[in-house]
Predict the 3D structure of the following.
Amino acid sequence: MDSVFSTFYQDSQQSFWVSTQIKTPKEITPILHTGMLYERKSPIISKEKLCFLTDSALFAAKSSGLKAINLAWRIVEPFTEESQNSIKYGFRILKNSSFKYFYVDSSQDLNIWIKHLSKISIMTGVESDYNIKKQIGKGTFSTVWLAQDLYDNNNKYAIKSIPKALLTRPSTIEALKSEIFTLKTLDHPNVIKLHKIYESNTHVHLVLDYVEGGDLLKRLLEKGPLSEKKASKFAVKLLKLLNYLAQHQIVHRDIKLENILLVSDKKETDFKLTDFGLACISNEELTDNCGSPGYVAPEILRKIPYGLKVDIFSVGVVLFMMLSARAPFSGKSPKDIIAKNKECLLSFHNKCWLQISKEAINTILALTNSNPNLRPNAKSALALAWFSSFKKNKRMMRSFSSTSTNASNSSSYENSPVIKTRPIERKNRLSIDCNKIKLFQEKRGRTNSDTLIHQKSNNSLNKTCLFNKTKHITNKSFFV
C-alpha cells in the first residue's frame, strides 16, 4: 500500500534502525511502554530485543548502543501467524516500501503494544476495530460516520473518511497533516479529540470524538437566539479556548457555527471546536487567503499580513449570530457575502436588537473591529465589561443567597435587609419579525438555506421559530 504520509518521512533514505545520541535507557523520556520484542531476521530466525516506546519513536537496546525508528506517520499493522502447532502474534512497521516484523509473547502483549502504537502511528483495518453504524455527515472532501468501538465497551466515535484520490495535491496533504498535528498537540475540553488514524488503499480515516448535540447552527435554526447570559458564557469559553490556542501559537482560521459542536441538547454552552484543516502555527505573520465567507477577518480579504487576532473576529461574528440568529454579512452568493465581509459594516437596526443590551453590542463591535491593531486579543477580550457584568451579578446573587440564609436562621428579622423592588418593564415580543436571515451553512457538502425566524409569545413561555427554506447557498471554507 502506498501511504499518502510517505512524503513526511524524515529518514526515508536511512536504514530501519538509526543511531541516537542517547546512551542509556534512563535518558529516554517519556516512556509509554517497555517490553521484549522479537525482531524477525529471517522466516525462521528472530532476535530478542528490549524495546522502549515513546510518544514519537521506538528504541531498541542493541550491543552497539540504543537505536531508534521514528514512528510518526508510519504504517503499523498487527498480525497473527498460524501453524499446526502454534499461533504467533506481532506487528509490522512500514519503512521504505517494506515491512519490519516484530513478534510478542501473547495476544495480550500485542493488544498492549497496539494500544500505545495507535496513539502515535497510522493504523490499518478500521473495519476490524469499529462497527460503522451510519453516515452522519457528508462534505466535498470527506464523509463522517457514526461508529462503535468493537473492543472498548462499544463507545461511540465519529470517523471522518477522506478519499485518497482527493489527496493528490501537496496543499491538500499538507492541510491534512496540519489538522492531525494540531489535534495531537492540543489537549483541551473544548477541542475535539483525535483518537486514532487509519489508512487503507482508498481512504484515510480519522477517529474523533462523537458529539451528540449537533452544531451551533442547527441549535439556532431550531430554537432561535441565545439569551445574553448564555451567549456571554458561550463566548467566554470560546475566548478562553483562543487564549489556550494562542499559548501554542495556533490560529484556527475557520471558526464558524458549523464547526462548533454542542455536547448535548440540554447543555447549550458545552461545546467542542472541530475542523482544524486550516489551522496552522502563527509564529510569524501569515498571508494565506482562507476561511469561510461571512466569518473572515477583513485583513485576510484585504491581503494584509495577519496573525492570531483573525480568530477573535470570527468569535465576534459567532456572538452576533448567537444573540440575533442573523448573519451580519448576507448576500445572494458567496461573492456578495465576501464583499460585505471585507467592507465590515455591521448593522444593529433590526427589531431583534431592541432586546439586546448596549454592552453586548459594544462587545461585538470590539471583537469585530476591522483594524486588527484595535481588536483585542483573547486575554484582553475576556476583560470586556459585558463579560465582567455577568460574573459580578453571579457574585451578588451568591452574596444575597448567603445573607438570606443567615436571616432565615435567625430568631428575629429586625436586622434583616429591606430590599425595594420595582416592576421590570418588559418589551412586547409579540410578532417580532426578524425578516429573512441567511445562515450560510457548510456541513461539508450539506447545502444551506435562507431562514425566516418568527418569534411569538402570548404571555406564555411558548416560543416558536418557523423556518421557511428557500434557495440554497453553500458556505464553503476556501484556501487560495
